[in-house]
Amino acid sequence: MRRAFTVLVTALVVASISTAAPKKRRKSEPLGLISGTVFQSTGFSLPGAKVFAVSKQNPKVKKGTVTGRRGEFALRLPAGQGAYVVTAEAKGFASQQRTADVYEGTKTTVTFQLKPVEGK
């Protein structure tokens, strides 16, 4: 009796999973990649620097990250927004900005060389 009940419950669970409506997938927009490295003025990489990109067309479209131990970063962004202003900043260093165009399925490389702030 117990075995029959277990088989029945298992069959009902499998049937409910197989007949469940598939989840709607979000229509994804075309993406591009901005990647690069943040260096110190001495030429060494700068880990822990904040890097963020803001769309010139729509300032609400923004994304940020922190550089890894080799000073590298990557931001996947909507390609339909065109140009982005990319900013790199780190404590004790003057921030820098670059403009980068993002196209669908492509990678744009941006490199920063931050200078130390005097007196800090």
Strand order of the largest sheet: 3-2-5-6
Question: What structural class do you assign from the helix and strand content?
Answer: alpha+beta
Q: What is the tally of beta strands?
A: 7
Helix content bin: 10-25%
N- to C-terminal distance: 79 Å
Approximately how much beta-strand content do the residues carry? 35-45%
Largest sheet: 4 strands, antiparallel
Would you write up a description of this structure?
- The protein has 120 residues and is of the alpha+beta class.
- The protein has one helix at residues 2-19, and strands spanning 31-40, 50-55, 62-66, 72-78, 83-89, 96-101, 107-114.
- The strands form 2 sheets. The chain has a 4-stranded antiparallel sheet with strand order 3-2-5-6, with no helix packed on it.
- A hairpin with a 6-residue loop joins strand 2 (50-55) and strand 3.
- It starts with a helix and ends in a 6-residue tail after the last strand.
- The relative contact order is 0.23.
